[in-house]
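To: structure subgroup
Subject: Chain for Friday's discussion

All,

I'm putting the inputs and outputs inline so they're searchable in the archive.
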Amino acid sequence: MIKRREVANVNYMEGLDVSIGNNAVTISPGMIQNKDNPSYFEKTTFNLEPDESLPVLYDLYILTDENTFFFSLEKTYLDDEFPPSYTGEYKLFHMFISIEVKPDGSKEGHVTRIVKPKPAKRHKRDLQEKDD
């Protein structure tokens, strides 16, 4: 089962909708709003291929070089020896998609979208006045 989650951040996604088929993940065109410097993404697709003997983990990271955001896909064969982790040279901003494909073809994982934060609710404070 693939879970859908959302997390709020000032650097939020517009578009970048994810559809997961039997053997592929497709991400629609979109952007990540980064103050006055948005990062644009074209339609992206990657295959989900099972291995005959080991589970395979597909992690799609969003990385940044301080000026722009971009995707990085890592494919890891899970052999119980080394846990998967991002070890690249760029700053990790967000783990967007993580899907484990088991040898029988079943899938589990998550898609975590970044949404725009909701405005803070202002609470009315009781104004108490006293006459002097």
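Points worth raising on Friday:
The two ends are 66 Å apart (CA to CA).
The chain has a mean pLDDT of 88.

D.
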